[in-house]
Amino acid sequence: MDHTISAKVNGSFQFSPEDLTDIDFIALDDTHFHVLSGNTSYRAELLAANPLKKTFTIKINGSRYDIQLADKYDMMVEKLGLGTVTSKTARNINAPMPGLVLKIMVEPGQAVEPGQTLLILEAMKMENVIKAVASGVVETVKVSQGAAVEKGQLLVQMEA
Prior knowledge:
Layout: E1 5-9, E2 13-15, H1 17-20, E3 23-27, E4 32-37, E5 40-50, E6 55-60, E7 63-71, H2 72-79, E8 93-94, E9 99-104, E10 111-112, E11 117-123, E12 126-131, E13 136-141, E14 148-149, E15 154-158
Antiparallel strand pairs: 1-2, 1-7, 3-4, 4-5, 5-6, 6-7, 8-15, 9-11, 9-14, 10-13, 11-12, 13-15
């Protein structure tokens, strides 16, 4: 069975499978480990783990590290340039239906996260909460409170 794996730490330091062969872990309990790398010994604590996303947060000697693991399939997807297909960045937000803008909750320059409310649109006597589908930064708000909008009209423009 092939156990090839790489690790990216804090989004910038990349460790190849060869780099990781020199590291040995000894579990002290469920969240504490003794780590041997070369001739150096470290105490590590597991702060958070998401095995499905292959992400882990650990603390070593008082410093916090976010780790993203990649197996041979993840590495192949990245090598083929397909890894960016799965990244979600916010797109421009268009009106899903004609209506009236009741309230605007964002302003230009504001960072938004997935699920964050951008504005409230009244349509057919119902309030519809328009939310961000991904992370991004608002470039401009193209409508004003009280404005009538048509289906498909640009409401919020996101930075590219």
